[in-house]
Amino acid sequence: MSNSEDVQVLPLLPLKNSVLFPNLLMPLSVGRPSSRAAVEAVLATEGKEMVIVAQRDSSKEEPQFEDLYNIGTRAIIKKMARQSENHMELIVLGVERVVILRLEQSQPYLTARVRPYPLPDEKTPEVQALHRAVIELAGRAIQLAQPSLPVEVSQFLSSTDDPVRLAYLLGSMMSLELSKEQALLEAATPGEALRMMHKFLTNEIQVLELRNKIASEAQSEMTKQQREYFLRQQLRAIQQELGEKDPQQAEVEMLRERLEKLQLPEEVAKEAQRELSRLERLPPGAPDYQVIRTYLDYVVELPWNTTTEDNLDLARARQVLDEDHFDLKEVKERILEHLGVLKLNPEAKAPILCFFGPPGVGKTSLGQSIARALGRKFERMSLGGLHDEAELRGHRRTYIGAMPGRIIQAIRRGGSKNPVLMLDEVDKLGRDFRGDPAAALLEILDPEQNKSFRDNYLDLPFDLSQVFFITTANTLDTIPRPLLDRMEVLRLPGYSEEEKIQIANRYLIPRQLKEAGLTPEQCSFSDDTLRTIISRYTREAGLRQLERNIGRVARKVALRYAEGKTEPVAVRPDDLPEMLGPYVFSKEELRKELPPGVATGLAWTETGGDVLYVEATLLPGGKGLTITGQLGEVMQESARAAQSYIWSHAEEFGIDAAVFKDSGLHIHVPAGAIPKDGPSAGITMATAMASLYMQAPARPDTAMTGEITLTGLVLPVGGIKEKVLAARRAGVTRIILPRANEKDLPDLPDEVRRDIEFIFAERIEDVLAAAVPALAEKAQALKTG
Amino acid sequence: MDRPKQLPAFFFPSLQSEERTYWRPSVDVYRTPNGWLLKFDLAGVRPEDVHVEVQGCLIRVSGVRRDLLAEEAGSYYSMEISYNRFERTISLPCEFANPHVSLEGRDGILIVRVSEG
């Protein structure tokens, strides 16, 4: 392939992505205007010769001379056909390698001066060895890539006696990167070209081996599955031969049998049959199969018609309730009433109760006790923090992993359609973009609607009307009105100290002793001990802290027994610091004497009641009313009303009106960090102000609660029991209450009523008369006058 | 310039690659009573562009076919005829001690007669 002509001027045809090797044919597709111009010009010559050269960056649409490699291939156009105006197909034949010397012309197409650049003849043993190695590698690569290729191909490869031609041929057959192809074309000697090819082939073989490995792994995976399928078919055939049913059929039969036995409501039965026939038609491998199967299982397991027999023995029910809980008369009466109704009318709708009270007063355990008294199943679920409506109502079956809502799940667990279902912490329902669970509860808790409650998953009406719903809450403020409206609210107020001692003796101590492995004889608590625990280690309306502390004492005692003690232990108040550590709470000491401007008030909190002081002071030279102590809007307004009342009656009280002009007033209610609100401190603030302006101290043993109006009326307030209990705990002996709250007194334990003197006020003058001794006369006169 | 992707699939042997860098004219070979007659299909090749070489029984015909109408014909619509260098070597099953070769061009066919001289 030597060429005698030396330097020639020929058109350049830039090639994207590829290199044309000498001795090889290559089809080309020409579309670029400059390339078309070059080809047209070449076709118009006698010899159809040009130089084909790769461009360095294949993304360049109009490559300039600098964008081309400077070694290319002289080529002859062998065949040509026009596809359209702008597009022609060529077959070109590479003739020889050329080096591009210089650009001759760049418009309308590139032409350049080129000189042949033949490879030196090299017949060294090394080249021969490489030649053979490359032939061998190529044969292996072909075997790996296309095992079905005829043997002739490799024979053909080995028949190529020119090593460079072999390298070029292989280079064009492998899908090498452009830079590698160009490097091969530029190889200075046959040895270098062969070494390069050797490297490429070795790499290619590795890749191919890896590819074959992956392919064969996938293949074996496939054959495993096929084998399994085949074996399953055989198994089925054998089972049929033996007269056994195939498992799927057996499953369907079983479900059908169970469905028929259940005597479902008509709509349910129809739907279930429909699903069953769908199940029958599906192959067990279908994704829907398990979904329908689980659904039918659920339908079958739900207690559509199962009810438990109510225990209508009133005496026994009363006994059970009394056994489990002390006092709580109102709630127990309500339960017994319902039992009475059920006795007369078995179809009566179950009530929907809401137990409302501070933590630890026994709301949840009362629910259990009710279930026991009625002889019904008890199921409990907490709604605290629940914020997804779907949790209650379930997800539609179209979703993957769909489940029924918690209501239906609880019913299934209970296994009867009339359980006692306790929805705990209904006041702590969340709500977000996923929906409002409270709204779902509206349907569930409405006796008119819950006869046909539709869970999203079941999509069948389920009768919830016989479910005895009980909800519990610590506060009613956060329960949406419509929801609260559906429920019968029963208050479980906090316990007094005496009640706590009673409960401790009857329930808590026996339970904790049993936990600790002690007998009642081994460890005893005196009432004084309990009183000390209650006042010094707990501050709560409920009983949890008390029970925990009793438990701690019991464990300490158990430890002593375990260490060898034998005689019984009677826990005395003095032993407590040793067993429980130093006192946690100091007793709420009443202030012994009150300076003018301070009055004792009573507050209701979620954990019970509390005693608080209202402090008022004059700010000489100041102006207006300053109110501090984290008081809410209502309380601030109530402070203003109190001030206005005192101000407007300054003359009658004998207060110098100038003081209102000259001095500001500051009212503070400790403890400053606890937010307070509500109108019930109205009369306390009025008393504090009156005491301040008159410089007459209020009685320290007297606490008060009540709302004040501008005209001086005292209006009733709530939470009387908790407030009175707290006052008593603190040592208050006289309490001023609004007249209208007199009705609440029967709720109070006898010993409280005995210990405390109650004064009922209709007007603020009554309050002042009772609270501030120095004002008694004036106030009385004011009222009558 | 794009090379169509489908053709050089990896290791799919493009057997055309056996082609040399020149084209091979077709040839008919006849046995005659006193030797051989070879007809080379060399349409469009100028007589002065043909070169015949005889070496014993090897007959090599080479040369160049130039596209004579290149300039006057306008632009190509399609092209199938091979141009530029050609070469064909025929090896005859005989040996002439003293071969006599005569050439004759007729209607684009080159006739080569070989006989014992």
Structural class designation of chain B: mainly beta
In terms of DSSP E residues, the strand content of chain A is 15-25%
Largest interface: A-B, 51 and 33 residues
- Number of individual domains of chain A: 6
- What's the CATH first level of the largest domain in chain A? Alpha Beta
Sheet/helix structural class of chain A: alpha/beta
Gyration radius from CA atoms of chain B, angstroms: 18 Å
Strand content of chain B is over 45%
What do we call the CATH topology of the largest domain in chain A? Ribosomal Protein S5, domain 2
Mean pLDDT of chain B: 76
Reconstruct the topology from this structure.
The complex is a heterodimer of chains A (785) and B (117).
Chain A: E1 8-15, E2 25-30, H1 33-43, E3 49-54, E4 71-84, E5 87-105, E6 111-116, H2 125-145, H3 152-159, H4 163-173, H5 178-186, H6 190-242, H7 247-262, H8 266-281, H9 287-301, H10 314-324, H11 329-344, E7 352-356, H12 363-374, E8 378-382, H13 389-393, H14 406-414, E9 420-424, H15 437-444, E10 453-454, E11 461-462, E12 468-473, H16 481-485, E13 488-491, H17 497-516, E14 523-525, H18 527-537, H19 544-562, E15 569-571, H20 576-580, E16 598-605, E17 608-620, E18 625-628, H21 633-648, H22 650-653, H23 658-662, E19 663-668, H24 682-694, E20 702-704, E21 707-708, E22 714-715, H25 720-730, E23 734-738, H26 750-755, E24 757-761, H27 764-771, H28 776-784
Parallel strand pairs in A: 1-3, 7-12, 7-13, 8-9, 9-12, 14-15, 16-20, 18-19, 20-23, 23-24
Antiparallel strand pairs in A: 1-6, 2-5, 3-4, 4-5, 5-6, 10-11, 16-17, 17-19, 21-22
Helix pairs in contact in A: 2-4, 2-6, 4-6, 5-6, 7-8, 8-9, 10-11, 10-12, 17-18, 17-19, 21-24, 24-27, 27-28
Chain B: E1 27-32, E2 35-41, E3 50-55, E4 58-65, E5 78-79, E6 84-91, E7 99-106, E8 109-116
